[in-house]
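Thought: the user wants the 3D structure for the chain below. I'll pass the sequence to the structure tool as-is, report back what it returns, then summarize two notable features.
Action: structure_tool
Action Input:
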Amino acid sequence: MSAFARASTSMASIGDIALQHGGVLRNAELAYVTYGALAPGGRNAVLLTHGYTSSHRFAEGGSVSDGGSDGSWSELVGPGRAIDTDRLFVVSSNMLGSSYGSTGPRSVDPATGRVYGPEFPAITLADIVAAQRRLLDQLGVRELVAVIGPSYGGFQAFAWGAAFPDVVRAVVPVASAPRMSGAIGVAALRRRLAADPAWRDGRYEPSAMVATMTALREDTLRRYGIDVSEYRPPDL
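Observation:
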């Protein structure tokens, strides 16, 4: 079965977002793709929520270099598949704060005219879900058949069920949990980033940090157990 055809990314202007930790994120935007058609009444929708390091295109074939993920969900979404786009209107939303198009640290702060960089405000899972709700309201979605997502996308699914139980009929978290089993070593991560001469207190050029970012990703995948996994990525 071939990979699901790629769709064009759309951008939704979702306005000002009042953040859980205080402050307001002005003129926020979310990147997203849709598959299938919304039924009259807006009650046949499924929301796909992606993992922490992938994008809203994770249900399509593609590669990291073109803004996609590894395509691991490309056989699950499409006509006649498990998430059947002949019957369902599928919305795959990018996360607020992501590097794949939505408002995030690489966006311009309208208050200063400069890229946010390290001054990007702290956002929470609740803020991410609230932004997605704004997007779905704009698209005319009145009820979700399910919120489905792997890893951090599963966290979002749980959060949707808690925040909007009147809108969500089911949540489908995959390889996820209602809470993390341990804390992330944020202080150690900051020290590792700061050790790179290109860091510049967080105002780095993305191309200058490739080696450090690649090493961090490799370490993360090893912690996930990729060295003992039977999966091997295809030759590119």
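Final Answer: Structure generated. The first helix runs from residue 125 to 139. Strands lie at 10-18, 24-35, 45-49, 77-78, 83-84, 89-93, 144-150, 171-174.
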